[in-house]
Amino acid sequence: MLLDEIGAYLDTNVAALTLGTNLFLSRMLETPDVAVGLYNSTAAPPTYYMGGDGNPDLESPRLQVLVRHTSYSAGQSMAYDIFTELNQIVGSTLTGTHYLRVAAVDSPTFLERDRNDRPIFTANYDVLKELS
Prior knowledge:
Layout: H1 2-13, E1 23-25, E2 35-47, E3 58-68, H2 72-86, E4 90-94, E5 97-104, E6 109-113, E7 119-130
Parallel strand pairs: 1-2
Antiparallel strand pairs: 2-3, 3-7, 4-5, 5-7, 6-7
């Protein structure tokens, strides 16, 4: 599934992230202070090929990434590191699923400060992939 596959990819390709420690799927815990959450977001309709079996051939989910940090500049930098890494997924196979493209919808943007005054950044990505 999308979050598992992208989470494993970021765990491997972004040195500062470790799945289950500071990289979380569909949630972000109060600790640690520096954390990243991956979330499913709205999606485009699936793609069907003519002559197929009636099931969609490609799906187009949207991914939202939230980055929380104790430092505004370091949080923004981490969000851009993830942005750079995700935009490199073109014609790649992640955990057995073929991804045609992961494309940023927007650049990392400051969202808010949480109740502990930690800045949170967000970015959204359109994904085109085979069914997993």
